Amino acid sequence: MEGEGCFSTSNKGAARLAVAMTDEDVIRRLHSLFGVGNVYLSRTPGGKPYWRWQVATRQARDIMRAVLPFMGKRRSTRIRGILEAFDGSPC
Question: CA 39 to CA 73: how far, in whole Å?
Fold first, then answer.
């Protein structure tokens, strides 16, 4: 999640977490580990397949809280900002 993950909010205001990469097994493992969200198969403009695990709303915020202690400085700052916007507190 640290290198391939994206912590954001949607244009509809929902918290969103996505991880995309060409390693299907890693994406499937994340999906299985957390038990929420969806896995999508996409292709780069050059046609190379990649998989994306995406989670939104409260489930995304719950995962953000769970992974926050393990993230680096930049990702932690981003996650805290999202959590504060929704919950008023990063914890």
Answer: 27
One-letter amino acid for residue 12 of the chain: K
Low-confidence stretches of the chain (pLDDT < 70) are: 88-91
Report the distance separating Cα 56 and Cα 52, nearest Å.
Answer: 13
Domains of the chain by range and CATH? 5-86 (3.10.28.10)
Q: Is the pTM of this model over 0.90?
A: no
Residue 4 to residues 15, 18, 44, Cα–Cα distance (Å): 17, 8, 15
Chain centre distance of CA 14:
12
Asked if residue 4 lies in contact with residue 19, where contact means CB atoms within 8 angstroms, the answer is yes
Own/partner pairs, 72-76, CB within 8 angstroms, 24+ separation: 72/2, 75/1, 75/2, 75/5, 75/7
